[in-house]
Amino acid sequence: MTLSALRDDALRVTATSTATEVRLSLPWIRSLPLASLLEPVVHLDGRRHEPLVLIDSRRVAPAELAAEDTWWYLQDRVVLEIPDAVTPGIHEVEVSFRLEIPYLPGGPDQPLRLPFSFHRTLGVGAAAAGVSQDVRSAA
After folding, report:
1. Which of 6, 56, 85, 135 has the smallest number of Cβ neighbours within 10 A?
2. Hey, which residues does 13 pair with through a beta bridge?
3. Nearest to 37 by CA among 49, 25, 20
4. Rounded CA gap, 76 and 56, in Å?
5. What is the CA radius of gyration of the chain?
6. Contact by Cβ (8 Å): 54, 62
7. Do 93 and 42 contact (CB within 8 A), yes or no?
8. Is residue 124 within 8 Å of residue 19, measured between CB atoms?
9. Dihedral, 112, 61, 84, 119 alpha carbons, nearest 10
10. Cβ atoms of 6 and 26 closer than 8 Å
């Protein structure tokens, strides 16, 4: 992979300024079911947060992603939402999670689960050229 899962425009505040969103790119070579995202944790300026996953306008707990029929395409980004809005400016962002690869064995009775961690210094609402969109439901 040549791009970080946290691109320049990954950090933003919602339009109502009540929540922080971290947009996460897929760090894999193929599209995967969104249910492949396991146990995401976001650290903002050193504070730990357990985010919700935003799918369209719905907020889904990561443990409930297995029930979703949504795909995480290579060009799309998963929106991780944290209830508190960060202030404008520069912030330290770290996202860690496991990624389940359903078609590769990780043991006798389970698929491969790879740990990932990405850290960047990001500005709120930075712009970046690209064609990505946020993950949307299949319906």
Report:
1. 56
2. 20
3. 25
4. 13
5. 15
6. no
7. yes
8. no
9. 10
10. no
**Residue showing tokens 């357990």:** 50
Matching residue, tokens 């961690």: 117
**pLDDT 10s digits, 99-119:** 999 898 888 889 999 999 999
CA–CA separation, 137 and 41 (whole Å)? 22
Check if the beta carbon of residue 51 is closer than 8 Å to that of residue 39.
no
Find where tokens 């899962």 sit.
5
Largest CA distance in the chain: 48
Cβ–Cβ < 8 Å for 121, 89? no
Q: Which residue has the tokens 């409930």?
A: 64
The model carries a pTM of: 0.89
The residues, ordered by sequence, that sit 6+ positions from 112 with a Cβ below 8 Å of its Cβ are: 100, 101, 104, 105, 106
Q: Which helix (H) or strand (E) holds 115?
A: strand 110-123
Q: Whole-angstrom Cα distance, residue 35 to residue 45?
A: 27
Give the tens place of pLDDT for each residue, 31-87. Answer: 999 999 999 999 999 999 999 999 988 999 999 999 999 999 999 999 999 998 788
